[in-house]
Structures are given as C-alpha cells and as structure tokens.
Design a protein that fits this description.
Layout (H helix, E strand, L loop, with lengths): L1 H7 L1 H12 L8 H10 L6 H13 L4 E4 L3 E4 L6 H13 L5 H12 L4 H8 L15 H14 L1 E10 L5 E3 L6 E11 L2 E8 L4 E6 L3 E10 L3 H5 L3 H7 L7 E10 L3 H8 L4 E4 L4 E10 L1 H8 L5 E5 L1 H19 L4
Antiparallel strand pairs: 1-2, 3-4, 3-5, 3-8, 5-6, 6-7, 9-11, 9-12, 10-11
Length: about 325
C-alpha cells in the first residue's frame, strides 16, 4: 500500500524536484532524477520518468532538455529578475517588520530553484532602514480590506511612540470609528483613507500605528465624499500625509525648480512665466509644516506669494527655527 501511494505521488514529487533542484545552470539527468526519487522513497524506471516528463510538458510545464546534461524547469510563474524586484520592495518597506520581511522572502524563494534562492536571500540590504515594530500590520490590513469588501465601518486605537518606544494612545486611548475606503502608500508607509463622521471629511491614518482594529456591524458612511475624491490626488495634496487645510498656493520659482515641481505635482501643473529667470506656479496643497519644509528644502528656489496667511505661516515657521538656533546651547 505504501509503494502504491508513493507511485501515485511520483509525478508531484518529480515536479517538486524540477522546481527546487533545477534551473538552466543546474539541469538533472534521468539517472540523477531516479536517484532523487529513490531518496524520496519512490522506485521508478527510466521509461516511466520520460513518460512523466512528457506528461508535465503536456500540462504546460516548461521542462527543457539540455543535450548531454539533462532536464530543467525553464519558464516559471516568477522569473529571477521579477523575484529580485519583489524582494527589494519587501526589504525596503518600512511598514513590514523584520520578521515578516524574512517570512515573505522565504516564501518568494520557494518560487525558484534552491540555487537561485541564495541570490534572493542576499539580494538587498538597506542599511539603517527603519522597519516597523508592529507585527500586527498584516492583520490590520486584512481587516481593512474585509471591512471595505463588506461595506462596514472599523474601530481602532491610534498611537504614537515616545522616546522609550512605548505606545502613547491618542484621545486618551478612546477608539476611533471611521468608514474605510482605500489603502494608499506614501513615503514607504501604508495609510488608511477613511471618512470621519465627526468632521464630515476624509482623513488618513498610518496603518502601523493602528491597534486593536475591529470590523463593526454598521454600514460605511461618506461614500459621496470619497467618490468625489481621487486617491492619487489625495496623496499628492497631503505632503508626507500630514493633515492640513487645503488651499491654492501661488509660488514664485527659479527656472531650475521646474522639473522638481512637475515631479511633485504632475504635468498638469499651472506655470506662468515672469519677467526674468523665474516663473509662477499655482499648486493645490494641504498647508502643513511638511509642505513648508519641502519649500525650505528648495533652498530659496521657490517662495510663497499668496495667499497672505500662508506666506505669513511660512515666515513664522522660519523665524521660530532661526530663534531656536540663535539660543545659547545649554
């Protein structure tokens, strides 16, 4: 009985051998395949192995004969270059914890031969890259997608970390209840874009700072508000996903900043020539310290012309920073 079961599993075992043990640089001859099968407790004849190979080929598996060397599995669901790109993305993602990153890379490595899998394990290391410490990010994302699929609200607690890396819950630990509509990625972080019934507007929340999420029974609210918004525009509007009042801001810019503004605001950016080597740009942003910091990073290449309250806010921020540096160091 045990031999019969082994024979029934021979085709699957052979496919596993091709998947894990072979690639273009590491083909296996039929004698070597027979040896691998024997190691798995399956006795086979050369003729049956040839028949199994033909069966796998008929079912779409790209098993290739390399004359004088043997057979290997060629085309796969993911090619090595594609897997390397995926590993890069996993390693560079701040919202994925180190342990979850390794778990994902291990699973990706199973999509290629054990020889090429070694290249994946050492493909990329981002020195000093901050990684999330929240192991429940996966479950939070899953709950958000569940709520969106079922048209339900969610509740969660929202926290920051203090200098001792302790959670400090906002609103004194009270739950946030919102209607989730989209997950967006900005600056290597995942954010939930949701309708907040209290304010009557869309707000966003960093997923790795959400805790104890629950899918509620109540149906989502604010669909009209969300459908009137473009998620891509929403992320462009909010610098670093900082909240702020949305305003149309006029900037006077040096000519060399044009490509920087186009990269940030897109090809539809309104730009008007000035007299001389400057131009004016009209941008729509959520006015926040992050936006002012971005302007400061242009090193005088762009200044706020209007509206006056926004220009005044920028002046106040620069003055406050200057005063900090003029103070005597204690």
């Amino acid at each position: 009985m045990e031999r019969t079961n082994s024979q029934k599993g021979k085709l699957l075992t052979l496919l596993q051998i091709f998947t894990q043990e072979t690639d273009e640089q590491h083909p296996l001859s039929v004698p070597a395949l027979l040896e691998r099968l024997a190691d798995a407790g399956i006795q086979a004849e050369r003729k049956s192995v040839y028949e199994d190979i033909h069966t796998l080929q008929r079912y779409g598996y790209d098993i290739i004969l390399q004359r004088g060397r043997g057979y290997y599995l060629g085309e796969r669901d993911f090619q090595l270059a594609e897997l390397k790109l995926l590993v890069d993305a996993v390693q560079a993602s701040k919202f994925i914890t180190p342990q979850k990153s390794q778990d994902l890379i291990d699973k990706l490595a199973q999509q290629t031969s054990r020889y090429q899998a070694r290249a994946l394990q050492r493909q990329v290391y981002v020195a000093g890259k901050a990684k999330s410490a929240n192991e429940r990010v996966y479950y939070t994302i899953d709950a958000i997608y569940e709520a969106i699929g079922q048209n339900k609200q969610v509740s969660f607690r929202y926290f920051d970390l203090n200098q001792r890396r302790e959670k400090v819950y906002r609103k004194g630990g009270a739950a946030y209840t919102v209607s989730p509509y989209a997950l967006v990625r900005d600056n290597d972080n995942y954010y939930l874009v949701a309708y907040d019934q209290t304010s009557g507007r869309l707000r966003h929340y960093r997923v790795d700072k959400m805790d104890r999420i629950t899918v509620r029974k109540e149906a989502r609210l604010g669909r009209a508000v969300y459908e009137a918004e473009d998620p891509a525009r929403y992320t462009d509007l909010h610098f670093g996903m900082f909240q702020g009042e949305e305003k149309e801001v006029v900037l006077r810019c040096q000519d060399w900043t044009a490509h920087v503004l186009i990269d940030r605001f897109g090809d539809n950016l309104e730009m008007y020539p000035d007299d001389g080597p400057t131009f004016r740009a009209v941008v729509r942003v959520a006015v926040s310290p992050q936006f002012f910091g971005w302007l400061f990073g242009l090193n005088g290449g762009a200044v706020v012309l209007a509206p006056e309250p926004v220009r005044f806010q920028m002046e106040q921020m620069l003055t406050a920073q200057l005063e900090q540096y003029q103070k005597k160091q204690e």
